[in-house]
Design a protein that fits this description.
The protein has 189 residues and is mostly helical. Helices cover 67% and strands 2% of the residues. Helix 2 crosses helix 3, helix 3 packs across helix 7 and helix 6 crosses helix 8. The protein is globular and about 55 Å long. The N and C termini lie far apart (38 Å).
């Protein structure tokens, strides 16, 4: 799903004063133009199946567009989009977990768990990225959200704002998650 190149002849990012619907459309177009790639990476990190990734992407796009009817510039556009996208993705995962699709584990369980994916070539960047995404998918939602936002180069304060956590708590979680992921990679080398 891609954003329109322009809205009503205006460049993307230029918000019109015509009315709430037009403002909502303009904000959506601007947000997706700027953060669409990050939203795609987020969907891929949450869902392995390409068909379900598409469903998740559609859910996120609809949620982002709808959310702009209540956007009041109380936070940055980036924070708003990430918050909506992560909340939507978390809800998507919870819905599918109830259907018995996903088995989520704590950091400690992930660290102790035997490798479930097929043998990968560790020196191939694509295989390493796939392996990292798989490990991230297995995390509980809050840990997954923290590390995904960290990988999108958000600082602890911004991540905390998106997820409703303190910056100190976020920094602690990032440290613990990185440590566990690092151990898991070393175990297979």
């Amino acid at each position: 799903m891609s954003a329109p190149a322009s809205s009503g002849g205006r460049p993307v990012g230029e918000v019109s004063q015509a009315g709430p619907q037009s403002r909502q459309d303009d904000l959506y177009a601007s947000a997706i133009a700027e953060f669409g790639a990050a939203v795609g990476r987020l969907a891929a990190a949450y869902e392995r199946d390409p068909g379900l990734q598409q469903d998740l992407m559609q859910d996120i796009h609809v949620a982002v567009w709808r959310s702009f009817s209540t956007f009041r510039n109380q936070c940055s556009l980036r924070t708003w989009v990430y918050r909506v996208a992560h909340n939507t993705a978390s809800s998507f995962v919870r819905r599918h977990r109830k259907l018995g699709r996903a088995h989520l584990v704590s950091l400690e369980q992930l660290d102790d768990r035997a490798e479930e994916s097929p043998v990968e070539r560790l020196h191939d960047e694509a295989a390493v990225a796939d392996r990292l995404r798989e490990l991230i998918r297995q995390l509980k939602p809050i840990d997954r959200d923290v590390i995904l936002l960290y990988l999108e180069d958000l600082d602890a304060a911004s991540i905390g704002e998106v997820l409703g956590l303190s910056a100190g708590n976020v920094a602690q979680k990032v440290h613990r998650i990185k440590k566990v992921l690092q151990r898991r990679f070393r175990m297979k080398s």
